[in-house]
Amino acid sequence: MSTPYAKLPAWADYGLIPLINLVVAFLVAGLVVLLVGESPIRAAGLLIDGAFGSGSGIAYTLYYATSFIFTGLAVAVAFHCGLFNIGGEGQAYVGGLGVALACLAFDGIFPWYLTFLFAILGSAAIGAAWAFLPAYFQAKRGSHIVITTIMFNFIAASLMVYLLVGPLKPPTSMAPQTRTFLDGAHLPKLGWVLEAMGMTVRATPLNITFILALVASVAVWVLIWRTRLGYEIRTQGFSPRAARYAGIGEARIIVITMLISGALAGMMALNPVMGDQHRLQLDFVTGAGFVGIAVALMGRSHPAGIVPAAILFGMLYQGGAEIAFEMPHISRDMIVIIQGLVILFAGALEHMFRPAIQAAFASISPRRAGLEPAKSGSV
Amino acid sequence: MEFLGVLLQLLDATIRVSVPLLLAALAGLYSERSGVFDIGLEGKMLAGAFAGASAAAVTGSAWLGLMAAIAISVFFALVHGFASITHRGNQIVSGVAINFIAAGSTIILGQAWFRQGGRTPSLTGDARFQSITLPGADAVSGVPILGPIYSDLISGHSLLVYAAFAMVPITWWVLFRTRFGLRLRAVGENPAAVDTAGISVAWLRYRAVICTGVLTGAAGAYLAVAQNAGFVKDMTAGKGFIALAALIFAKWRPVPVMFACLLFGFLDAFAIRYQGLAFPGIGRVPVQLMQALPYILTVILLAGFIGKAIPPRAGGVPYVKER
User: Fold this and answer.
1) How far is A238 from chain B (nearest CA, A)?
2) Contact across the interface for B304 and A349, Cβ inside 8 Å
3) Which of A184, A214, A273, B158 is the most exposed, fewest CB within 10 Å of its CB?
4) To the nearest whole angstrom, how far is the Cα of B166 from the nearest Cα of chain A?
5) Is the residue at B103 inside a domain?
6) C-alpha R_g of chain B
């Protein structure tokens, strides 16, 4: 067979295969739970109960999902251009700087919605700026964007430590963080929506940024599939040579895509910094930038897949806390393993089960599997 | 003599912190020269460190620790190979996945097995690689200048340190003077040509990633069983990525890799020793800037401002045999 990955029906391609990959990832994660000496079935029960068993659980799940939607979209936009933005973590981290600067400047003057506007602009601008140099070097000087964005993650970490133990720290404080924001920079919570639906929600961090994340998802869909720029981005990602032939400026598209990607990653900072902690702290991103890679891979780089994938990971974060509480040998680091396994099976090994599934489809209906001799001449 | 003493201490620290970088960077050299990008050096090193410390703690033998470190690291290297060679998956994605799996599982298993908050028990005696005093080190220590250099700087490291530096000429010899090395480099530049010559591209690349696994395992074992007396969570702390930076900085060549690792190690040792020191003419340099310097230098190099780093041409591209 000359075409190793022949066409499958869309529902198998976008539904069945990701599902199988996900199930395998969770089975392997279950093996790790067994190795630790706990019951995987009980762990799964605790996970689901912790994430969806109560109003507060749902609110926390959606709070975590908010961050992952932003970072997932950031990775996905870059994927569409054939770029791997592994620097979401760093872009989100410095994005926090934009949020904090806007909040510190305006929290005593403006109501929250005006401060929010400036914080959105600030986080997006600084996140984009952090992605600019890797993008520019990739476009103009041919350096590999994966390596440069990794390097920029570390540089971001050093920069933020420097700023938070130095210039941004109030002189009277010992902790490496900014002062607490005033009321003018506290985002409204969304717990009341769940309460209106009859659930009890105690103080949870779910806030208006969740709505912004959904808006961003729609905006990304419009951008990628309904605008000229999105078409250029997809063309560049699908075939750089075709893009060049079509007169699409390669360097321009790479830089613009990465700016959008960096801006989306930077906006993730709004959720924890302005929505929950009300101050800029060290390491507030806590891996959300990397979760974005798993989310984008699982969601097949489509907003309609990214939002559920982000909610799944929100569930893992929230339910994982519940497991850690009930099972002393399992900490929240279990999520890191699951994340790794999802990236492995849904990303790197995404084609592993494909030949078997194709064979199965071919035996049921050769024509629909696209394997009939007339079409692929060299079988 | 005061100055010499300080300098020797600084260089001694440089060697200690450079060794894991050197082993990991040489590991990456095999894989990347064969056309398989590996950003999972960090994860393999971490898994190796954990396995090494666990095995050494349980068996009381540093050597068994080293074996276990190499075994688990080779296992992860083979997973990477399985994904990126056999299944033609994205090599970057696979490397990222391995980093996460290693980071999470070392903490979970460490806590479950040893109940010390992710640490392994402290290693003592034979469970650790002890420092070796080279012959004659005590005798010549009285000789001015050369004496202290030999007895303090060159002598008194663990076996893995000497092994790591020995790996530099060995790697050079393997890559540039053996048939295997020639083929390995060829498969990283033009796999189709190697395939035409009747040599299996996949098997060559598998052998390359196994070499990578062995060396990252040794790097992990050095961290947990020689330099430190046990495993602590996230103990690699980005060393795998600095090693990757060093590999690029050295333009994928063994001897420059050693110098790049020594340079980055020196920056690290210097930053630790002279935190907050004011330089004449520059003023106080923040310690964070010193820590970020390897990454900044690598970005500048990659951007082509200090020479040009050209990766192996087939790097990152899965090989599809034409039929």
Assistant:
1) 15
2) no
3) A214
4) 28
5) yes
6) 20
Among B41, B75, B76, B108, pick the best mutation site for testing chain A contact (most A Cβ within 10 A).
B108
Q: Shortest CA distance to A216 belongs to which of A69, A39, A75?
A: A69
Domain extent for A289: 49-354
Q: Which among B15, B16, B21 has a CA at the least distance from the CA of B226?
A: B16
Strand partners, B283: B279
- Asked whether the beta carbons of A49 and A56 are under 8 A apart, the reply is no
d(CA A207, CA A14): 31
The partner residues of B185 in beta bridges, in order of sequence, read none
Where b means 16+ CB within 10 Å and e means fewer, A75-103 reads bbbbbbbbbbbbbbbbbbbbbbbbbbbbb
Q: What are phi and psi of A231, to 5 degrees?
A: -60, -45
- pLDDT at residue B10 tops 80: yes
Query: What sections of A179-267 are H helices per DSSP?
Result: 191-196, 209-226, 228-238, 240-245, 250-267
For residue A168, tell me if it sits in a domain.
yes
Interface touch A344/B103, C-beta < 8 Å: no
Phi, psi of B278 (to 5 degrees): -90, 125
Say if B308 falls within a structural domain: no
Contact B97 A150 (CB under 8 A): no
Q: Which chain A residues touch B88 with a CB distance below 8 Å?
A: 351
- Percent of chain A having pLDDT more than 90? 38
The CATH number that applies at residue B115 is 1.10.3470
Rounded Cα–Cα distance for residues A288 and A22 (Å)? 19
The CATH code of the domain that includes A64 is 1.10.3470
- How many domains does chain A divide into? 1
* CA–CA separation, A129 and A121 (whole Å): 12
Q: What is the pLDDT of residues B20-77, one digit of tens each?
A: 999 999 999 999 999 898 989 999 999 999 999 999 988 888 899 999 999 999 999 9
State how far the alpha carbon of B318 is from the alpha carbons of B32, B37, B81, B88, B187, in Å. Answer: 12, 10, 11, 5, 11
Determine, for residues A32 and B291 on separate chains, whether the beta-carbon distance falls below 8 Å: no
Q: Name the CA radius of gyration of chain A, rounded.
A: 22
Please indicate, yes or no, if residue B323 is contained in any of the structural domains: no
The verdict on residue A363 lying in a domain is no
A334: Cα within 13 Å, side-chain hemisphere: 34
- B319 in a domain, yes or no? no
ipTM of predicted assembly, 2 dp: 0.86
In a domain, A372, yes or no: no
Judge contact between A131 and A85, C-beta under 8 A: yes
Other CB atoms within 10 A of residue B196 CB = 9
Determine whether the interchain pair B289/A86 forms a contact, defined as Cβ–Cβ distance below 8 Å.
no
**A179 and A114 Cβ atoms separated by less than 8 Å:** no
